[in-house]
Amino acid sequence: TSVLGPQDLELRDDLVSELRLMPGAFVVQSGQMGSVTSLFVRGGDSTSNKVLLDGVDAGDMGGKFDFAPLSTTAVESAEVYRGPNSSLYGADAASGVVSLTTPRGTTSFPSLLFRGDVGNFNTSREELEAAGTYNKLDYLGAFSWLQTSNDLPNDEYHVATTAANLGWQPSGSTQIRATLHYGVDATGVPNAWDFHHVADSATEKDQDLYFSGSVDNQTTADFHQSARYGMTRKREQ
To answer: Would the CA dihedral through 115, 116, 120, 121 be positive or negative?
Structure first.
């Protein structure tokens, strides 16, 4: 098991480059930034990984998951388990598990954080995050925008990500929390440019929504109970 913390993720636009550094993990991307990206763990198929976001199954039916449009915005850590673990996570975890968590507000005052960077191929990224606590309430909201033209005709890519984490602790033993991640992206699909030097006029678009609501109660030192509702909605054109 490897854990990618805030220092590993805050300077990354996505998880693709970090997952490539994992031992036993093989990442395949069908093109440049924004193109379909699959993860193969220890020889297993790309549909044999369980991807969780705040405990909610984020994968498509059948186990497929595209890592390209998944931004690191409001992702505090990524725990990568390389190996089968179906007894704990279900049949989809035949090769590995990638578990992502959302940070929460911790400061006693509203804190505001802005990041921005630019690069070649008309690439730019801006991210704004607001977080804090108030009495028994903690909150976090984030928004980011990334765009790049890549270096092929009709291969432009952009992704907008919105995330929120709201928690309320009415007592020392009970906590209620809701998290939301919503990403909208579009990328050009120029096809086999190296063969024909003619770019297809095609575009792929995604709208991915992930929601988690949970109630946790530590009844006694040895007894903990939790109820969770999760929702994943994906659209692709």
So the answer is: positive
- Phi first, then psi, for residue 232 (nearest 5°) are -130, 125
How far lies 167's CA from each of 5, 37, 69, 140, 224, in Å? 21, 33, 26, 9, 18
As given in the structure block, the two tokens for residue 47 are 């549909």
Q: How far apart are CA 180 and CA 233, in angstroms?
A: 12
Characterize 33-46 residue by residue with b for buried, 16 or more Cβ atoms within 10 angstroms of its Cβ, and e for exposed: bbbbbbbbbeebeb
- Going by C-alpha positions, the residue among 176, 169, 162, 178 that lies closest to residue 130 is 162
With beta carbons less than 8 A apart as the criterion, state whether 79 and 3 touch.
yes
Residue 90 is predicted with a pLDDT of: 82
Take residue 176 and report the two structure tokens written for it: 């209620």
Position 169 scores a pLDDT of 95
205 pLDDT higher than 90: yes
